[in-house]
Each structure stands twice: as structure tokens, then as C-alpha cells.
Amino acid sequence: MALRFEILARFNRARAAELILPHFVCHTPLFMPVGTQGTIKGLTTNELEEIGCQIILGNTYHLALRPTSELIDEMGGLHKFMNWPRALLTDSGGFQMVSLLHLADITEKGVTFQSPVDGKPMLLTPEESIQIQNRIGADIIMALDDVVKTTITGPRIEEAMYRTLRWIDRCIKAHKRPDEQNLFGIVQGGLDPRLRDICVKGLVERNLPGYAIGGLAGGEDKDSFWRVVAQCTASLPEDKPRYVMGVGYPLDIVVCSALGADMYDCVYPTRTARFGTALVPEGVLKLKHKAMAEDVRPVDPTCKCMVCKNYTRAYIHCLVTKDAMGSQLLSYHNLYYMMKLSRDLHSSIIQGRFPQFVCQFLQKMFPEGDVPEWVCNAMEVAGIDISSCCAPFPLSEDEHLTVCEAR
Amino acid sequence: MKFRVKAWSKTGRSRVGELQLGSCPYTIETPALLLSTRKGLPHFISPQLLPSLPSPDSFLLQCNPLHFIEGISFETISKIGGLHDLLGLREYAIAAVPRDSDVCLPESNSTNKFGASFETPSGRHLIKPVDYMNMISSMKPDLWTTLADEVPAWVSQNRNRTSVDRTVRWVDECIERNVTGGAVFGSIVGGSSIEERQRCAQEIARRNVSGYWIGGFGLGESMDERPALLDVVMDNLLEEKPRQIFGLSLPEEVLQGISAGVDLFDSTYIYDLTVGGLALTFPFDGTDPRPSNYQFNENASDFTKINLKATIYRKDESPILDNCNCYTCQNHTRAYINHLLNVHEMLAQTLLEIHNTHHYLALSSFGEGVRIKSLQGPYFVGGFSVNYSGL
Ligand SMILES: [Zn+2]
Ligand SMILES: [Zn+2]
């Protein structure tokens, strides 16, 4: 194990912790931006530090193709190659194959896929995924799992869960750098609580440095989503970090953190920036919209980032989707927003005002009090009283409850 | 604006000077480069990284008002407070020039007596002096050049004469409508005709302008015919006023301009290099690094620049240039930039634009380098030799 996870404070199920990794001491709850190919959208590593990024993701599938893990190894690892002094995490590569390639086929051996270079069939085994990740050298590496869409039902889900458990042993066995890199296991099992439970138990027996909740954020309904998170966080060990994979909407992060999750990753903030959308406390701001052309306010008047301090919506409007600088500036703001959200979650838990923070967050996003029912349900399970923001101001205490329940 | 010629070359026309512009608190030594921008910001360098470029040489920006024809109204720019506030660059000197060399080019066939025509991504636009001056008054640049009718080198004598007539008339119309405090640079055209160049320069020299903008270069004339054209223009201008040029962008062209007595240049070359995956590497020590018959060699280098897309840099752990103190060279290897180029990641352009800007600024300025050398006679900079008329 090459990490320490120290919980500094709790609010019911929510935790604020220090995650001490070989390259950086991270504060959780934490959003991890995705730098697929060893970089994020024209931002320099200096800027990423300024924004407050603590750990970034590299995609094993892409890096293994170009520049190849052998080259990264030869260059001294990904940290050195991209000159990023803080922490890194790599995924197993399996998910990218299944989602990007039509011809991926999963067998007991591994994931067979057609090489995008020469079209030949290739096989990614659990052993190989770990070897590649060992060469890349991230602080956290992910086990190869059998990924199935959450919207799929039937025996395939069960098969995938058991295969994921069999593969974790092959991953553990193949892992050559356990003193420098932390192997996280991934809980699978679709939306079936029984399967999730078996998977959690199986993984916990292996005493891994951390655990991820996989197979979510794939189009399942929100109520199923939070219930899986709630179930897994409840049964995963207290003293290990919990990472919900592929989650990146601010609202989802707040809900999952209330339920006791610690880490998140998603391409959403940078991808949406490319299409001209800014993350703001009220939700999103579409800067492509014509109305923005005359709007002389900052993207988010409450944001202290370089972009909001210097630029108007009108200027960003005339850059977005046309000039490289448009997506650079919006990515900067969006990542700043996500990192600020992470910091606020962390500090509000430490300062014992987590419910107040959650309420403020929800109030901004749902000023009419129309907080979605699934959020109300999840918060109830999390023991966070959000009645004060669940209906417009003049409602009485009792009416709040009725509104919430009625959803 | 304040401008002062500090010294002249003993044998030639080169000069070094000092320029102070608008809200920029720094005195900028000339010859100097104006950094080319897209909508006011360098193409790929975020405003956060701008301060890492050599100061104060990087504080001159060239902005094309026509970039804002679409997407934002000039009323809004005015409401925001003009270009400096729009761009969040209050300490930078911004020069407005109504053209560039990649997305907004003069379209002389459609230019008429009412205004100048330009080909832009949002279509062809005919800009009348009154339109242009509306742009200028809402943008409030520190320096702006008057509207010009630029024509390619191959147009008829008649068309060339018309272009001078129009350009001179538009200088008057622009000045008449001017309501900003920015310095006005009168545009000089005349194509490849010595007579027309002379006529235009004489007319503009008589006007109440703070400096001169020399257009109509880089439009098909040969490098050999330039010295005479430049000389006749310079001979007719007031010596104490600064001279800005457009269309001389390659290193040898900038040196050609310096030799002729030009003070301000555009830096399109940096953009071209950057999008081509090329990095400047020429030395400043006065030596010529090139063998007599040079081309890109097996190291993907022509001795003045390297092509970082080449496979040879795949595992190259050195910076673009040893001893370069730009952000890129201080932080990243050739191998990393090669990877970024291979996978089409924007950071490649960001890092290349930083290095190339850093390096190219040193060509015109280089503290004690070119500025002083340009006063001393024939010289080499990074293998770019300048040796003609009077140097
Ligand atoms: Zn911001
Ligand atoms: Zn450099």
C-alpha cells in the first residue's frame, strides 16, 4: 500500500479526508480532471496547479497507443514526461475499449479488440493492463474490470461481476510496484443490490488500498444511481478511499459526497467548455447563446478565477466554438469551479457546516425549491436536512416536508 | 505616444529608438515586434502566461478590429471600456490594424471608392472609413492605422494609382472622424511602383499623423525589389516619427526592414511556425549555423528551426533549446511536445507559441544584440544575413 487515508472530519456519512499519495497530499471530497493524453485542453501544468488540481487522470488506452507505455517508462514515467509534480491516476483501459471500439469482445482471458493502428485483433488481459499502468507510473492504478452498461439486465451482469472478482486476483498478482502505486478494485454488479454486495465483500477481502464504484453514470436513472452509491459506500471499509467513476456533474458530486464517497472523475467540465458551456452555481451558462453577446457581466460574478476576474460573457461569447482561446478560457473556469466545489465540500465538512453548504448549493441551483426527488431521497438517507431549500421561502416547516415527499 | 530615435546606423538607414504608448507603463525599445493576435489575445497563449514572455518587449499587441465584426457589437466593446478592458490587458499597448495575414485579407477586387474590402471567415466585408472609425472609437486602441487600399504587386498602374489616391483620401477621412486619443499612423501604399510609393509617402508625410504604417508588402513583390521601394518611402518620411510595416514577417524580411529603417513589425511568422509544429532554434551570436546548401536535414532542422513532429524527437529529453529561459524550455521536453503534436493536443501550440514568441522577440530586440548590431553594418543573426544598400 502506497497511500494513507486520514479522515479529518465527518458529517454523518460524509467525510473530509487527507489522501496521502506518493506525489501529493490530496484533500477529499475531490474531483479529478481527465487529461486523456497527458494534457488538459491547452492548459499548462502551472495553470492546473493554480486552479487547484491535485490529481489528474490519464487514459491507459490512449497513452498505450501514443506515445506508448514503453516510451513513457523510458522517459521516467508520466509525471516526468508531462512535468506534473502532483498525483496521477490511470484507468485500466478496458472501459475505453468497450466504449470506443465496436469490436471489443470480453472473454475470461481479457478484452479482445481490434487495433486502431493496424486492425489486427489484440488482447488486453488484466496482467497486461497492470503492466502498462506500472510502466506509466501513476499514484493510483485501476484494476481491469468487466464493464457492462448499467442499462443491461440479466445474467450478463452477474457474469461480469464474478469475472471482475476473478480478474482482481490476476491484477494483484501482476502488480509489480505496490510500494509506489496503489491498485484500486472496482465494484461491479449493475443495479442489483445483491450482486453489488457480493462484489464489495469479495473486494474488501483482498484488502486493497482503495475502492471504486464502477458501472455507473451510464444512463441509468438517478434514483438507481444514488442507491447503488449509497449501498456501496455503506459497506466499503471506513478507512479506505471510495471513488465513484465517471461522475462529474456538480449535483451528483454533492449527493455522492453526502453519501460518503470521496473521489470523482469526468470529462464533463472540459468537454462542455469546448461546446461553450460554463459551470455556474445556478447550473450551466450557455455562452453560445445570442443573449451573451451583449452581456458585460463575468461568466460567474461570484467566481474568483482568472477568467471571471478579467473577461465578460460578451467576449467569451465571441470566442467560444470559434477560437482555441475560447475553450481554453472556459476549461480554465470550469475546472476552477470543480476544484472550488471540492474545496468547499472538504472545508464545510471540517467546519461542521456541511448541511448548510449543501442547502446553499441546492438553493442556487434550484431557486424555485424544485430540488429533484432523487436528491431529496438521497439526502434523507445521508441524514442531511435540506427542507429549507426544498420549497420557496414562504412555506412553513410542515409544508416543506410535504413538498419534499410529494416529489 | 512618445517616440525618440536614439541612434542611427553610421553607414545605413537602420535606427534604434524608444517608444511609449498609451496605457503601457514601459518604454519599448525599437526595432520591435507587435505580437499578432486573434480577437486581441495571442492565438494559444492564455493571458495567465503572457507575463512569462520577455518584458517589456512582449507588451506590444496588434489587434485587428475586423475580428469583432461577428459575435460582439462595437457598442458592447465600448460599454466594456474598449480593448484594454475587453482583454483584461490594461498594461499592454494595443495597435489596431484592419487586416492580418491569415483570416482577414484585403480583397482589392472588391474594394471601391466607398471603402476597403476584406475576406474574413464571416464572409466579405466592405469597410468604409466611417465604419472603421466607429470601431476605433469603441475599441480605444493606443495606436491605430488608417484604412488602406492594399493591392497586390501585379495590378495595373492605373489600379495602383487609384489605391494611392483612395488611401490618401481615407487618411483624411479617418483623421476627420477621429475622436479617440490613440496615436494615428497614416497608411502608405503604392505597390511595386517607385513613383507611387514616393507620391503616397509624400502625401502622408504632410498629414497630421503620429507615425506611419507601410502596407502593400508581402503581396507578390520579390524580396529583391523591396529595398528600393522601402528606401523611397523612408526618404520621404519625417525621421522623428515611428514607422510600422506589415507583410515583412520572416526573419530575413524583418532584418531587411530593420536595415531600411523600419521600427515596428508584425509577427505572423510566429503563428505560421506554431501551427506548423516548428520551433525556432537559430543562434544570436552572430554566427551563421547553416552550411552553404541548407535544407531540412536528417534532424528535421534547417539550422534555424526544428520540426518537432519528426520521429527523431520522439524520445528527445532535451528542451527545444538549451539555455532558453522561456516557460516551455524550462518545463518541457521535445519528446513531450512531439507527443502532443502527434495526438493533436492544443497544448502543443501553446508551448510552441510561447517558445517561438520568446525566441523571435529576441531577434528584433535581443537587448544588446540586433538593435546594436543593426547600427554596425552587415551582420548575421541566426544565419539570416542582411547585406544590401548602405549597410
Ligand atoms: Zn471563473
Ligand atoms: Zn524556449
TrEMBL record, chain A:
Name the chemical reaction catalysed here.
guanosine(34) in tRNA + queuine = queuosine(34) in tRNA + guanine
Q: What is this protein's function per UniProt? A: Catalytic subunit of the queuine tRNA-ribosyltransferase (TGT) that catalyzes the base-exchange of a guanine (G) residue with queuine (Q) at position 34 (anticodon wobble position) in tRNAs with GU(N) anticodons (tRNA-Asp, -Asn, -His and -Tyr), resulting in the hypermodified nucleoside queuosine (7-(((4,5-cis-dihydroxy-2-cyclopenten-1-yl)amino)methyl)-7-deazaguanosine). Catalysis occurs through a double-displacement mechanism. The nucleophile active site attacks the C1' of nucleotide 34 to detach the guanine base from the RNA, forming a covalent enzyme-RNA intermediate.
Which Gene Ontology cellular component terms are annotated? cytosol
- Alphabetical list of Pfam families matching this protein: TGT
Residues at which substrate binds = 91-95, 145, 188, 215
Q: GO molecular function terms here?
A: metal ion binding; tRNA-guanosine(34) queuine transglycosylase activity
Top-rank taxon of the source lineage equals Eukaryota
Alphabetized, the UniProt keywords read: Cytoplasm, Glycosyltransferase, Metal-binding, Transferase, tRNA processing, Zinc
Q: What is this protein called?
A: Queuine tRNA-ribosyltransferase catalytic subunit 1
* A Gene Ontology BP annotation from the UniProt entry: tRNA modification
Binding-site positions, Zn(2+): 303, 305, 308, 333
Location in the cell reads: Cytoplasm
Q: Region (RNA binding) spans which residues?
A: 246-252, 270-274
* Cofactor(s) listed in the protein's UniProt record: Zn(2+)
Q: How does it assemble?
A: Heterodimer of a catalytic subunit and an accessory subunit.
Q: Which residues form the active site?
A: 91 (proton acceptor), 265 (nucleophile)
EC number(s) for this protein? 2.4.2.64
Transmembrane annotation, as ranges: none
Q: Which family does the record assign?
A: Belongs to the queuine tRNA-ribosyltransferase family.
- Residue ranges of the tRNA-guanine(15) transglycosylase-like domain? 13-365
Instruction: Spell out the Gene3D superfamilies in the cross-references.
Output: Queuine tRNA-ribosyltransferase-like
From TrEMBL, chain B:
tRNA-guanine(15) transglycosylase-like domain location, by residue? Answer: 14-363
Its cellular-component GO annotations read: cytoplasm
Where it mainly occurs, coarsely classed, is cytoplasm
Question: What Gene3D superfamilies does the record tag this protein with?
Answer: Queuine tRNA-ribosyltransferase-like
Primary role: Non-catalytic subunit of the queuine tRNA-ribosyltransferase (TGT) that catalyzes the base-exchange of a guanine (G) residue with queuine (Q) at position 34 (anticodon wobble position) in tRNAs with GU(N) anticodons (tRNA-Asp, -Asn, -His and -Tyr), resulting in the hypermodified nucleoside queuosine (7-(((4,5-cis-dihydroxy-2-cyclopenten-1-yl)amino)methyl)-7-deazaguanosine).
Protein name as catalogued: Queuine tRNA-ribosyltransferase accessory subunit 2
Print the keywords alphabetically.
Answer: Cytoplasm, Metal-binding, tRNA processing, Zinc
Q: Where does Zn(2+) bind?
A: 324, 326, 329, 355
Which family, according to the similarity comment? Belongs to the queuine tRNA-ribosyltransferase family. QTRT2 subfamily.
Which species is this UniProt entry from?
Heracleum sosnowskyi
Cofactor(s) annotated in UniProt = Zn(2+)
Q: Kindly state what the record says about how the cofactor is bound.
A: Binds 1 zinc ion per subunit.
Q: Domain of life of the organism in this record?
A: Eukaryota
**Which is an annotated Pfam family here?**
TGT
Which GO terms of type biological process are on file? tRNA modification
Q: Give this protein's Gene Ontology molecular function annotations.
A: metal ion binding; tRNA-guanosine(34) queuine transglycosylase activity
Q: Where does the UniProt annotation locate this protein?
A: Cytoplasm
Q: State how it assembles.
A: Heterodimer of a catalytic subunit and an accessory subunit.
In terms of NCBIfam families, this protein maps to: tgt_general
